[in-house]
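User: Show me a protein chain along with its predicted structure.
Assistant: Here is one chain, sequence first, then structure tokens.
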Amino acid sequence: MGYSVGQVAGFAGVTVRTLHHYDEIGLLVPSERNHAGHRRYSDADLDRLQQILFYRELSFPLDEVAALLDDPEADPRAHLRRRHELLTARIEKLQKMAAAVEHAMEARTMGINLTPEEKFEVFGGKDPEEHAEEAEQRWGGTAEYAESQRRAARYTKGDWQRIQDEVASWGERYDALMEAGEPATGERAMDMAEEHRQHIGKWFYDCSYEHHGCLGAMYVSDERFKAYYDSMRPGLAEHLRDAITANAARHSQEA
């Protein structure tokens, strides 16, 4: 009967929405549908998805991925040469991918069938499609976006873990600050806002006070950002926005 779209999403670490999109544009059309019309994916479909995600990890646009997979005349080496800088920056990630490919080749040579989980473990549970297109549309032409992309391309799994640990620590301390009833305009809240700004500067791009203020406003106006910060503590998004504003004003007075 094959695998359901939910199962494949779980195997590959992508969203069901991503798989639906791939189906709609003809990039990955499931081989079967059950009597109810639901998608069912075969092992061959999983193999194709694995190839798609490899190319997406290298930032290939979807139309180029389709060309590589469907056009027998397409030369993948030409595409790789055009992205030499990206490949160089992400050499550690590519080495892990190469090891996964070798594992797959060895398994196939020996007649061993890899489990769906094993086919996609190299991607670490991250969906390459999630937010990528929207972020490029919103900020693709900015220096901040370019710098963020350049830095992120070099980060290892350990780097991403350190980023997550820093965010978690900051969230716990901001939660405690609000629990203590500290106002957004107080010194402690402004110091936490400054730490937030410096975290962005440390890992992604130089974040000016003006740009930080724009981010603070977005944390409240964009429901997804608001939900993210409010998941740390209800009301945190608005408190942080006000603390960011107060911190920028404090800085302008000191300058």
